[in-house]
Amino acid sequence: xxxxxxxxxxxxxxxxxxxxxxxxxxxxxxxxxxxxxxxxxxxxxxxxxxxxxxxxxxxxxxxxxxxxxxxxxxxxxxxxxxxxxxxxxxxxxxxxxxxxxxxxxxxxxxxxxxxxxxxxxxxxxxxxxxxxxxxxxxxxxxxxxxxxxxxxxxxxxxxxxxxxxxxxxxxxxxxxxxxxxxxxxxxxxxxxxxxxxxxxxxxxxxxxxxxxxxxxxxxxxxxxxxxxxxxxxxxxxxxxxxxxxxxxxxxxxxxxxxxxxxxxxxxxxxxxxxxxxxxxxxxxxxxxx
Length: 289
Known about the structure:
This protein has nine helices and nine strands. By secondary structure, it is of the alpha/beta class.
């Protein structure tokens, strides 16, 4: 299973999970378009499209840093075109870019409501759509979106309705596109972490450093994504995957190496139901119920 020579278009790949997915593909010798907004260093968040591109090159891949705002259709279309021109096509689209705001209905202002809808649901739709002409020409085309399994329990909506709508909208894109483009052989799947992941979003928007210590590293999502993207697209579509379940199915038994601090219970992520069985030995603490 290798992505050698494949071309990935990854949104939000300047840091976090997106960068980890890019680096895992780069180790195979893949081409990666780093499609993200951060061109200049952020005062609080590490990484730009250029530092990410350097890391991809150092890992063994070819990189194309692109300044992209997924809210801007013209920006996305131009970036996809440049990626395809540079590398000779696009094999894989990874919808990783996402904004988080867990404010309840009466507290979220409409400007921020619009922002998370535009980046999350609309951005996924626009980016997937922009990549479709190139994916249709690829040998084993995949669209992978980092969004949760669809579960309509009210508990996942009541505390942060606006955010839940935006993330479930991403998943609905995959549900619909999987059926819409099945005949074209384009796999459309979603991937979600069972636990919180040690990213800037977790540190600044969720639980700070204390939560980081009981989270997993982004590499677990990257390894799970690699397994999915290596599968036969015609035989793997319309699925809502959980990261460690994908790895367990492939034979992985040691999950401690993914923990920021091995040992002890990990925080279950949003949208992870107790009914979803974890691999043996994985201890979870459910904060969102």
